[in-house]
Specification:
Layout lengths: L6 H12 L7 H12 L5 H8 L8 H11 L3 H11 L5 H8 L2 E2 L1 H9 L6 E4 L6 H16 L3 E7 L8 H12 L7 E6 L4 H4 L2 E4 L2 H5 L5 E8 L2 E6 L2 H18 E3 L8
Parallel strand pairs: 2-3, 3-4
Antiparallel strand pairs: 1-7, 2-5, 4-8, 5-6, 6-7
Helix pairs in contact: 1-5, 2-3, 2-4, 5-6, 7-8
Length: about 260
Amino acid sequence: MPKQELVRFGELLTRARENQKPRMNQTQAASRLTALTGKTFTQSRVALLEGGKITDPKPELIRALVTVYGIPFRDFIKILAEEKYGLTPGQAQIAAMSRLDAEGLSAWMKQLPDGQSVWFTAPRLLRSAYDSVLAGISSVLERGGEVVVWVSESDSGAKSNTHRFLLMLRYRHKYDGTVLRTALIDDLEVALLTDYVIANPLGVLTGTGNSEGWLAFVRQEGLLCLEMPKDMLEEQVIKTEALVRTRAKPVDISLIPR
């Protein structure tokens, strides 16, 4: 049975190459791939790639194509998932997302530049994930950042997950209330925000870029975080920015009853 040609994969390459300024030809693409990988690429091999004739591109080749053609790695994986493995567009989008567990999310927050802003909500956060997430949030605050914790009305009581979360944060540190804030949302709005973790939202609002966000799903085995596509992140930040301005209230950790 002949292998299925990757027509859309090839078309993605062709469009990206032709849209480069100045325009890159196939011979130039071959030369750059050769220099980058240390393996010989010819114009004819590039033509095969762009024609969808190479049906099993290896990860190292895809990474080289990302650099030479200027296409996000996620776009390559999404098209491969749809065309080669028959996933639906929704399944392919999920398959193409980067993934983190609770420890990975903590490490990601720790590597953010100083002075960043993090919007965080996880009303169903598992106790097993507390330590990891707390360590990440503490790192943001210790380095001059700001954290807004979204709190639903049904999760704002003295015995709620959020209260326990803030209480554990108090055990670790004392912060000026201006850098740690809570924003109350009603239970209907939780549908928009539940389990979202959004970092550096101001990058979207100011047009400076460098914003990243994660969709965090609570599973029995722990916290699974999927990287938010840029368009989804921008839409979410724009929707919720007004809520931050109108509802975010300072929290003085030292005043939370033990």
